[in-house]
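Quick one - inputs below.
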Amino acid sequence: MPEDIATAALTTVPPISLRRRVTDHVMTAVAILTVVIVLAPLVAIFGYLLYRGVGSMNWAFFTQTPKPVGEEGGGMANAIVGSIVILGIASLIGVPFGVGAGIYLAEFGRNRFGKAIRFTADVLNGVPSIVIGIVAYAIVVLYQKHFSALAGGVALAIMMVPTISRTTEEMLLLVPQALREAAYGLGVPYWRTTLSITLRTATSGVITGIMLAFARVAGETAPLLFTAFGNQYWNMRTDQPTAALPLQIYVYANSPYDDWHRQAWAGSLVLIILIVTAIAAVRYAVRRGSFGTA
Amino acid sequence: MPGPQPVEQTKVTSVPAQPAPLLRTRGGEVPDRVFKSAMTACGLAVLAVLGLIIYELVLRSGLSWHTFGFKFFAASDWDPVNEHFGALPFIFGTLVSSLLALIIAVPLAVGVAVFTTEMCPKAFRGPLSFFVELLAAIPSVIYGLWAIFVLVPILSQYIQPFLQKTLGWTQLFDGPPFGYSMLAAGIILAIMIIPIISSITREVLMVVPQHQREAVLALGATRWEMIRIGVLRNARAGIVGGIILGLGRALGETMAVTMVIGNRPEIAKSLFAPGYTMASVLANEFSEATGDVYLSALIEIGLALFFVTVVVNALAQLLVWTVTRGQPARGNA
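Output:
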């Protein structure tokens, strides 16, 4: 009788012992506790940032340059514009190279050479940003004999390329092979297929990668310390020392003046809003689009 | 994805005799070759950048290498005035702050990853991992700012006296509780690397096949036993990879550490004492380094930092690759 055997088996299985049940509950509690501990700094940082930042923002912050040491007031207008210029230069250099390298990896990189590039990109992703700053100093600042926005842009561009190339590759590989084949079937040349069909189809995913790279370098300070260097005044030339928002926050945070601390908080809030907006836009786009894993 | 191309009304009715002229083959294979070379050049640029980094660092640290030789990494005096340079205090500071960060971060990060993949109701998974990864999006300098005005005061007023009272006998917590210390650097680094370790652990746990879990449950295991035997054991290599990747990030982290570690080139036993890291000394002294030897010594520190992080990262990539099979390990955002 199968039922008898089943009941016999059931009765012979010993119940889960108290010790094991308690361990199970304790470990669940521990896991929940870790989540609470990890989320606490997040809440604390964002909360404090909002608390200090919102109160510190005013019109002058967005329209004026820093006042001399000891004077109240002034703002970070030149730093905000400087950051935009530096990030613009970085994107102008980093995006084409990053997307190009991604196209190479996805379309031509099924070989040992492609593997080497892929590995190099992943390793490059982990190089400390301050070391990249040294290199940008060596290849741009030493030749220009100036700290400059260009040098800062080059440093950030180097940091953008690995992220952009790897996400571009992933996104291009998600485009169905049948689409490419359909284009070849119509006699479309390879380059045209890649640019107008494959890349076009993956546009939203590629932009996601670009935005992620942008968000990553937007808050970078270390590589700008001895490339863009910072500036107390307006500067619109790319071959002169240029102010940047993260640099200004760093200098103000280490200063002994309350008014500068206030502006550091306001600057941080502006910076974090910029970055979180970029990331939220990416999340939104990813959820809506058909490309999954960015 | 772009929608279907808008087609002008008049053209719909007229059947084109030839394929769309825009896309027609023109010029034979030449444009294809040009395209391939251009893309290959972009790929080469990635290799070239790494080559350039190594070349510049080696070239410009040569002077320091010739002057001090291997002693540079064993000497502990840092005296720009008399041009005596030894990197040991910075190496010590980098190692201790990073290890401290790992000790704090690893249990928390793994706990969070286990909770998100195995215990948490499905609806909370997305938001929870989003919030944890939001930590990775906060710029280093903002961590530093927050640490100066929130973490350091809390440390010096509450946590340091408490540690001194309860664990003072270990001699790890000696000295005045100023706040700016190796301990502060370790804590802020831990907060910064938790999202990296946690997101990679989560990825690795998710590729553990479902039948592993089912098999262990079928043997009568509780949920924790299932996680321990069926999930964590299978994902070991990948989790270690994530931890090493976090270590790589901690070693090279600059701004937040520079702002709280106290910046004094000393080798102290106490975690309450200020320290100095390799990245911090670069951040503080590089732009005002006078003299070729000074600059060269700093670049040699940069070279050492680069070398260590590359080895650490390569190791981590290999470990994560063996588990997730070729997917890149994502440490950020």
